[in-house]
């Protein structure tokens, strides 16, 4: 896939517009064929299937990043573990739709697990009693098997993932998406259209703010009408695991996620420090939250998750108020 640009064009007309895939700015966009085929506009029977399957999922969150390597999968696993650990009555599902680089089986410690299909659909793998995971990684013989997949095959896989996993009742379904704005995002947006995306969480690092990738991601969400819950800045400070002193890694001039969030009118949810113990735990699939409860990384994470829950509750209340008023 190295030859395909991984971002929507700057002047993307939007997937629902009549000129989707046909505007001059669409030339060279990796999503052009999907948009021009009309697949993003025609009612797809998969949309109704997804709506039915996810009717018992209360909140659907997308975790997005402009570029790979900023810690999107790490943050997805941390948020999921944190939401599950802080309330045993809450059920969390993680859906890894990073089809070309599924990392959740590794970071959540489920590498080598296989999933089974029964009459009611695919059964996810249980990481904890209230935390389940479905990933393309469970279906591949080798992690490199999917990298050559093209648009339609990826689109169909996302449709199956969204409509055929037997999650049961979930309070939160958290989707780990590939970096950038690719076919997978458009497919997920299309299929989740009727069931509703609660919001997107955008992960960035200070250099990415400077390189504009994250701004493109925010603009993409605005164009396809995905509400943005907020921005998380990852690895901007280093907290020494021994003395707990914090040091800024990147000079302020490289980028400031908080300033950018204010400027683009999205909420800044907080920062997660660069933490070598976290990197090691994730690489080995260990539960960082259980092992390092006193770490500054966990306090930062708890604050972020509290705010995510608050924002989801606010959205739910807002929705039920507007339903009552109609
Ligand atoms: P992405 O999903 O954006 O490609 P990953 O979550 O796979 O990124 O993270 C890339 C690498 O950075 C991994 O080795 C991960 O362990 C490490 N990493 C991510 N966030 C942190 C952090 N806050 N502290 C230390 N290492 C981190």
Fill in the keyword field for this structure.
37% helix; two-stranded antiparallel ribbon; 326 residues; Rossmann fold; binds adenosine-5'-diphosphate
User: What is the name of the CATH class?
Assistant: Alpha Beta
Number of helices: 12
Note poorly predicted spans. Answer: 1-7
Ligands (ions, cofactors included): adenosine-5'-diphosphate
Outline the biggest β-sheet.
9 strands, mixed
Identify the CATH architecture: 3-Layer(aba) Sandwich
The ordered string of helix (H) and strand (E) elements is HHEHEHEEEEHEHEHHEEHEHHH
| Average pLDDT figure | 85
Number of strands: 11
SSE topology sketch:
Layout: H1 32-36, H2 45-53, E1 57-65, H3 72-85, E2 92-96, H4 104-107, E3 116-118, E4 121-123, E5 125-128, E6 131-135, H5 151-164, E7 170-176, H6 183-192, E8 199-204, H7 206-210, H8 213-223, E9 228-239, E10 246-248, H9 257-264, E11 268-274, H10 276-283, H11 288-291, H12 296-324
Parallel strand pairs: 1-7, 1-8, 2-6, 2-7, 8-9, 9-11
Antiparallel strand pairs: 3-4, 5-6, 9-10
Bound molecules: adenosine-5'-diphosphate (ADP).
Adenosine-5'-diphosphate binds at residues 65, 68-74, 103, 234-235, 272, 274-275, 278-279, 282-283.
What does this protein structure show overall?
By secondary structure, the chain is an alpha/beta fold. It has one domain: P-loop containing nucleotide triphosphate hydrolases (Rossmann fold). It has helices at 32-36, 45-53, 72-85, 104-107, 151-164, 183-192, 206-210, 213-223, 257-264, 276-283, 288-291, 296-324; strands at 57-65, 92-96, 116-118, 121-123, 125-128, 131-135, 170-176, 199-204, 228-239, 246-248, 268-274. The strands form two sheets. Strands 1, 2, 5, 6, 7, 8, 9, 10 and 11 form a nine-stranded mixed β-sheet that branches. It has a two-stranded antiparallel sheet with strand order 3-4. A hairpin with a 2-residue loop joins strand 3 (116-118) and strand 4 (121-123). It is globular. It starts with 31 loop residues before the first helix and ends with a helix. The protein binds adenosine-5'-diphosphate. Adenosine-5'-diphosphate (ADP) is lined by residues 65, 68-74, 103, 234-235, 272, 274-275, 278-279, 282-283. Residues 65, 68-74, 103, 234-235, 272, 274-275, 278-279, 282-283 line the site of adenosine-5'-diphosphate.
